[in-house]
Amino acid sequence: MTVPSAKPKAMIQDNTRCIGCRACMVACKSWNDRPADHTEFFAGDGYQNPRDLDANNYTLITFNEITTGARPNWVFGRQLCMHCDQPACASACPTTALTKTPLGPVVFNEWRCIGCRACMQACPFLIPKYDYESLAPKIHKCTFCADRLEAGLKPACATVCPTGAITFGDREDMVTEAKRRIAAAPGTYIPEIYGLDEVGGTSVLHLSSVPFAQIGYITGLPKTPMPDLTHRWLRVTPHVFGLLYGLFAALTWIVHRRSRRQEHGPT
Amino acid sequence: MSWTVRLTWWDKLLLAVMAAGAAIAVVRYGGGIGSVANINNAYPWGWWVGYGIMTAIALGGVGFTITGLVEILGRHRYHALLRPAVLMGLLCYSSAIVMLMVELGRPWKVWMILVSWAPSAALYEVGWCAFLYLNVLVLEFAEVPLQQLGWARALKIIRVVYLPIMLLGVTLSHLHQSSLGTLLTLIPHKIHSLWWSDQLPLLFLVSAIMAGPAMAILEHLAAARWLGFEPRLDMLAGLARIEAWLVGLFLVFQIGDLVWRGAVGAMLGGTWFALSFWIEVGAGLLVPLVLLMMPEARQSRGGLAAACGLIVVGVLLHRLNVAVVGLRVRHWETYVPSLGEVGITLGITAGAVFAFGVLARILPIHEEMSALRVRQPRPSAVPSMAGGS
Question: Does the global pTM surpass 0.90?
Fold first, then answer.
């Protein structure tokens, strides 16, 4: 077995190469042992099935009908955990049940989870899902096939894609490759790599022929890591604790002394 | 004093609501959260977190607010409100813990917070602070039953540690009340601009402080009515004056923050979000502020009850708007709390009210009651007291 290089990994999701065959969804279900769902088509934008990620679907190809040129076309997009470099979900977890591993995957540790769902609330990409019907519910999301990566294998989805829409490798190489593709075919791609610096950078890099907002991606995200927002407040907590305790103690002492003086003062 | 309580019609009603809540809880533990609740993948936190935890903790802020006012700022004219406030704090936090046991997916793992090291997680700090503060509240309140039991030794120890423990309680409250807001600063793009602010920690802290006097006034009026003593309206009027300043402060802070962030447009837009915002600010802040600024309203039971009741509802609406209503998720996703969700929270709240009512009748919580006991109690006013004099 080959020894995997310890460099952080990444995946390019090149939506311009996607034909919507959903082999990645099947491979994902298979590797992660997710059962089939009974699904229904729905009215409205998008025609994918199921409509959204859930506890049994860790990745989803979205079908978007978009007029490109003169006629309507299917343009595909993909949803999966972005595996942020500094994940909001992990920073929100009070028991460190979610952690970012050196190879890239953000992994879930069932043993530590208390089921508070702060990670679901925290995720800017709306990725973690829950099995509300279960008596011992778990957080469900793409694992980046962390177990396969440890063994030096590619993620399941990347092995089955028949059109080369999913490319796996070291993150620095993937960034170079994504930039090369955009530069080589500026007519095919919009000049944007989704995930390059969204929320401080992620381990999944998406390419597209149309603006990402049109294919169901959440756009307008900050380029700085989400945990920075709470870190500003939380890092001062120990100091605030000491400061407030001292302040309240001093106030109590002053007020008490004053009232005692008034009691025993000149009559 | 007797330890037995004759249950009134009200007690029985509360017990019935508690039983209904317990029955729904059985379904929840038998069939999972999804069997009773409408919370879903888009709205992982709903009524249970918005009301049962966030609002319960905010209203439990009455404990540290009145404690701080009396013990730290030395406003001893409000001393009569101290014991009820600490007991209310204790019961609010206890009800939040019970709610947590229903709401968590894996409640049997809750101890994991105490053996983890997650300083980057606001919930970690909230968990630790609330856990410690619950213990502080127990110690603060312990004096009352210990006195009643006549355990002199334990009482002596409690009185020695009271001052540092009391200071610890007020400090911890400032930390975790604000940390509940810190938690939500994490998702600026997900919470509507009407409610997301990087000042959420301070907004949560100030609104919890604002909830304190309102809860204390409501409790005093309710206790006066059900336990049959004369409410001390002059004292309440004084507290209501302070409360008017607190409501004004929060209003200026909230609106000023919106203006500062450039979110005035969202405030004036014709959206459901804007409507929800104006109900929150109008009913929860503007109306009570006007009421509290009128001397005749501050002097009357009706005026005080209306103003303080609206403030409490306003705090609830603020927590709900930040954590649930203001969420922007996939546009087809919806959430309306189920009857099961509301039923369980009603059961928990009923339990807290019931416990308060029973304790208020067997323990010397209200100074006014001991005054009543010295005199002859009006028989019609204290029907529930079993040999209370």
Answer: yes
